Amino acid sequence: xxxxxxxxxxxxxxxxxxxxxxxxxxxxxxxxxxxxxxxxxxxxxxxxxxxxxxxxxxxxxxxxxxxxxxxxxxxxxxxxxxxxxxxxxxxxxxxxxxxxxxxxxxxxxxxxxxxxxxxxxxxxxxxxxxxxxxxxxxxxxxxxxxxxxxxxxxxxxxxxxxxxxxxxxxxxxxxxxxxxxxxxxxxxxxxxxxxxxxxxxxxxxxxxxxxxxxxxxxxxxxxxxxxxxxxxxxxxxxxxxxxxxxxxxxxxxxxxxxxxxxxxxxxxxxxxxxxxxxxxxxxxxxxxxxxxxxxxxxxxxxxxxxxxxxxxxxxxxxxxxxxxxxxxxxxxxxxxxxxxxxxxxxxxxxxxxxxxxxxxxxxxxxxxxxxxxxxxxxxxxxxxxxxxxxxxxxxxxxxxxxxxxxxxxxxxxxxxxxxxxxxxxxxxxxxxxxxxxxxxxxxxxxxxxxxxxxxxxxxxxxxxxxxxx
Length: 469
Ligand code: FCB
Description:
16% strand
């Protein structure tokens, strides 16, 4: 089988987020976040799980950096917890909180791993939620103050900044469906939140540019690939609208300075349109250096007048991960090529800032018997990653300026409302002992990184047992 090479300098990385891995929620002056409040509210997360301890990354980051070094990654994407820096959201910075990230970033640099920092991965200070949270326009400005402070302190060592992670999820899972913190079900609030998140992104980009800070800045969107459930005109129209509400609602403001007209008409007819201040769209449209794409699956869309916006999501026919998400690697190629085609020249460069899969992994032996050679068997994840790497490679061949790929996640962690019931890691975490155990997929990724190439067989659909290791 031929080795398909990635460009020289391609960034291979892993990703995590503060609330999902850090733990140490009351240490060194950290304030409460909306995820602390939400996860401690009975009935909100699986088994009542919380991020109180999570992977104990706050104390174990040196060990995890050792694992990353062994994997050979060139970059690590982590997020900064706003309530560690400003425990009540604003006012006096908490220097001990900042110091944690300084130590983390220095330790990464010491082993030549590039720190990639997300400024908001969902842990809003609870004190700001009490002032209305993201539904309050002021939060966009408070975010910009926080972002400005952190970027001034850490730019240089941090060379890539991601303002917001998946604003659709924050706005809609948090404020429309109520499945994520702060758990609201208020469509008008959800659209206001989406606008304020976009505004906060633009304000942070402005601050970054005005101060001529070193490095580059962009945003991460969860691009949700949708296909019509059938060839019927109704399903096709529903699919187009779903794409508008899920994807173009964020892409168009960022790259074109306007909301997509087809969706605006519908949102207006429901009375959900946010207030847009004069100058907002120009701020949101401030040029960025790259777009981060989180890609996991695709969804089929059927027309259904009884559903919000008249669209009903359905799973596709392919194999599913433990999330119930269809494995659909060719969708990654479709998303990357489409984004570049539709949004260049404003869209200059892309990163896959998350891609990965949850499977029901188990230790092969009781934890007391685990040693450095123990490997968790996860052939499905190897297959999932290999086939997605192939599609990324294909997109690069077709001219997409894809600069890097971050596997979600470095290690198993707190999967939001699903708690610890879903494992996405390359490393298995035995939570009671905090022992990390490499999965087969970690060994696979190590080889891909070392070769900067994948086996061409990942371009074909075939049983995992046929693959070369
Ligand atoms: C994404 C989130 C990330 C993780 C993965 C599985 O939506 O950004 O934190 O939970 O899904």
